[in-house]
């Protein structure tokens, strides 16, 4: 759509400058024993103890799927025309020697209880549900225990769908959640657990009504440690319909170890719906999105951020919603199309409150993303406030 007058955008820029942030320089100490979120949804404040020595990250260099665990030929995810190079730590984890397996060879043996138990135990998790695709209807949210790992890998082999049945969030990890165990004195900046989801589908997740950490994350919620998504699909997930800053119908992330990026590789996000970020949402989090596809996602809140008088707020970032201080977004080899936002950024909403954040969109296509009220002039489907204009080498925006 056509950009609104410059004065409107300038006014919005002043308004969003006061948003809460969770950048790499804003990490706090562990929460009090009560574990109760603060008034700012648990965003860190103050100084933090020194971080632990990092483990080899997210599967380690050169890791790849076992030939016996390669996805079924009918499973397709991401943008097949994407040609962005994938760094070693962003690739799939080798699951040829799993720590544990869900199922004993039949669909009936692959239950919600078995998934919940395996995720809580940690390690490399695969599935043995028979030769055909299977949907596991989750009757409870699978939660990562922070002491079990340090790697937690969920590999569906291209045949497994985890369904929230439109009733619940599917997967949860939070290093600052007392109920999942504290493993360091600096929960907001620790390198573990390291969560990987690969070759799997998350469908019909719903975190509506979840209050912890401000909500969001219809399919997956992550705070702390590391997380990456490889060759996976997210379909028809959702979170609360309104709210100025919550989001991420598929994936919501708050803080990552040393502000290292969340990798999203060869993955598809479709038909997600939330107040903000119909697919992805983060606060002070860096993202690297490679060879992926976003289509039919929507930000359905209204009133923007901060919420206009008389509105509940939200409605920005049809596909991707990013807020905070110093963080980066890199999108390469990716198609973002037919997403919409009631307010700003039909494709992407990016606000760096202290104007230090940067965004690069390489060899990608953004098209037919509708911004209901505002976007940045010259960048169709994008609202951006950061250090400088987004860089878009080899990309098409329309």
TrEMBL record:
Protein name: Right-handed parallel beta-helix repeat-containing protein
Entry keyword annotation includes Oxidoreductase: no
Keyword set includes Transferase: no
Region (Disordered): 25-108
Signal sequence bounds: 1-17
Sequence ranges of Low complexity compositional bias: 63-72
Bias type Polar residues, positions: 96-108
Organism: Micromonospora costi
InterPro entries for the chain: Pectin_lyase_fold/virulence
Keywords from the named record: Signal
SUPFAM superfamilies according to UniProt: Pectin lyase-like
């Amino acid at each position: 759509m056509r950009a609104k007058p410059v004065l409107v955008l300038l006014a919005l820029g002043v308004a969003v400058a006061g948003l809460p942030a969770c950048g790499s320089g804003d990490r706090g100490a562990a929460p009090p024993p009560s574990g109760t979120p603060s008034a700012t949804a648990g965003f860190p404040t103050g100084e933090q103890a020194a971080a632990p020595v990092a483990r080899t990250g997210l599967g380690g260099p050169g890791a790849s799927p076992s030939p016996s665990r390669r996805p079924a030929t009918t499973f397709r995810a991401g943008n097949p025309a994407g040609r962005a190079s994938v760094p070693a730590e962003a690739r799939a984890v080798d699951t040829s020697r799993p720590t544990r397996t869900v199922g004993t060879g039949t669909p009936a043996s692959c239950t919600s209880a078995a998934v919940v138990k395996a995720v809580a135990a940690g390690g490399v998790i695969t599935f043995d549900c028979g030769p055909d695709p299977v949907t596991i209807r989750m009757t409870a949210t699978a939660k990562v225990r922070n002491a079990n790992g340090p790697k937690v890998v969920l590999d569906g082999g291209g045949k497994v769908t985890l369904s929230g049945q439109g009733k619940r969030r599917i997967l949860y990890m939070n290093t600052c959640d007392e109920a999942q165990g504290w493993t360091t004195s600096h929960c907001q900046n620790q390198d573990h657990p390291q969560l990987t989801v690969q070759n799997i589908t998350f469908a019909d997740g719903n975190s509506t009504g979840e209050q912890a950490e401000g909500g969001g994350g219809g399919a997956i919620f992550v705070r702390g440690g590391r997380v990456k998504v490889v060759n996976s699909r997210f379909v028809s997930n959702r979170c609360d319909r309104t709210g100025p800053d919550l989001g991420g119908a598929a994936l919501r992330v708050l803080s990552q170890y040393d502000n290292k990026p969340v990798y999203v590789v060869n993955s598809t996000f479709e038909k997600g719906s939330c107040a903000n970020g119909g697919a992805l949402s983060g606060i002070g989090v860096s993202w690297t999105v490679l060879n992926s596809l976003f289509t039919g996602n929507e930000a359905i809140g209204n009133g923007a951020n901060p919420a206009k008088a008389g509105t509940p707020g939200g409605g920005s970032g049809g596909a991707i919603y990013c807020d905070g201080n110093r963080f980066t977004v890199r999108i390469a080899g990716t198609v973002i199309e037919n997403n919409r936002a009631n307010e700003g950024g039909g494709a992407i909403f990016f606000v760096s409150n202290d104007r230090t954040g940067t965004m690069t969109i390489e060899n990608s296509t953004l098209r037919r993303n509708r911004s209901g009220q505002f976007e940045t002039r010259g960048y169709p489907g994008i609202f951006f406030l950061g250090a400088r204009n987004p860089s878009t080498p080899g990309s098409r925006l329309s």
